[in-house]
């Protein structure tokens, strides 16, 4: 599937997708209405990471209805880090938003990202507040994981930062020049630097389906 619009969009939204068939239409509807309000031309690049449900069919239908929604499709499940990398590769915008497909990253936060981008920030991350959706144990392990990374690495990961963010084209190009195999995007996003700021947001509950967190 390809985007038939000829002009280069100002804003790209990159979404890794694994077995999210039921979330895609609500996601697309919310994105379309939020992005229309921004007065920017946009594209949404969805990467089907080897889904086994109706994801690919749904993406085809979304593309047919609105070519600004385009899709890449992997032959098997490669994991979301690789899906995001492929999306960044395909994205053409002057700015690129990365977000999850399960509506845990509310599209309504994107205008705040864009506002910061217009102020000159190049690496704008969504900072999770009130992570009430996490089971206690997972929260504990997540904290421990980040504390370990913090101790052993020289790049501080901002607390509450995840994949939900806006990157300026310069930052995207810096990422694309890196040839990392084992990708850990959150770490890379922090490592590249650039003028960085966090925008707080409340993580929503996953709309449909189950988390494939590991
Ligand atoms: N995802 C993916 N490939 C995978 C697992 C997940 O592309 O192998 C996508 C998934 O569809 C979602 C995002 O990555 O858009 C985050 O996944 P998930 O919600 O399972 O993780 P969590 O929010 O629990 O960390
Ligand atoms: Mg999720």
Give structural notes.
By secondary structure, the protein is α/β, with parallel strands linked by helices. Helix content is about 35%, strand content about 20%. The protein has helices at about 20-35, 55-65, 80-90, 110-120, 135-150, 170-175, 185-190; strands spanning about 10-15, 40-50, 70-75, 95-100, 125-130, 160-170, 195-200. The chain has a 7-stranded mixed beta sheet with strand order 3-2-1-4-6-5-7, sandwiched between helices. α1 (about 20-35) runs parallel beside α2 (about 55-65). It is globular. The model has no long low-confidence stretch (mean pLDDT about 85). The structure holds uridine-5'-diphosphate and magnesium ion. The site of uridine-5'-diphosphate has 17 residues, from β1 and α3.
The kinds of small molecule bound in this structure are:
uridine-5'-diphosphate, magnesium ion
Distance between the termini: 30 Å
Instruction: Determine the number of helices (DSSP H or I, runs of at least 4 residues).
Output: 7
Mean pLDDT: 87
Radius of gyration using CA atoms only: 16 Å
Helical residue percent band? 25-40%
Q: What can be said about the biggest beta sheet?
A: 7 strands, mixed
**Low-confidence segments, ≥5 residues, pLDDT <50?**
none
Specify the structural class. alpha/beta
The overall strand count is 7
Shape field: globular
User: Which strand order spans the largest sheet, edge to edge or round the barrel?
Assistant: 3-2-1-4-6-5-7
SSE sequence, one letter per element = EHEHEHEHEHEHHE
Share in β-strands: 15-25%
């Amino acid at each position: 599937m390809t985007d038939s619009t000829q002009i280069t969009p100002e804003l790209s939204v990159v979404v890794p997708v694994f077995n999210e068939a039921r979330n895609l239409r609500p996601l697309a509807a919310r994105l379309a209405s939020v992005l229309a309000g921004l007065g920017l031309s946009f594209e949404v690049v969805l990467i089907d990471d080897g889904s086994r449900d109706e994801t690919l069919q749904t993406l085809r239908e979304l593309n047919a209805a609105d070519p600004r929604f385009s899709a890449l499709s992997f032959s098997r499940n490669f994991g979301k880090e690789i899906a995001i990398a492929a999306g960044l590769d395909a994205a053409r915008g002057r700015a690129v938003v990365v977000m999850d497909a399960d509506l845990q990253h509310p599209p309504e936060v994107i205008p705040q990202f864009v506002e910061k981008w217009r102020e000159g920030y190049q690496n704008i991350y969504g900072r999770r507040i009130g992570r009430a959706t996490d089971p206690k144990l997972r929260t504990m392990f997540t904290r421990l994981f980040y504390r370990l990374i913090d101790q052993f690495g020289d790049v501080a990961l901002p607390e509450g930062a995840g994949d939900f963010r806006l990157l300026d084209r310069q930052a995207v190009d810096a990422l694309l020049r890196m040839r990392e195999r084992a990708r850990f995007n959150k770490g890379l996003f922090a490592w590249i630097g650039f003028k960085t700021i966090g925008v707080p947001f409340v993580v929503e509950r996953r709309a449909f389906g189950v988390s494939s967190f590991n």
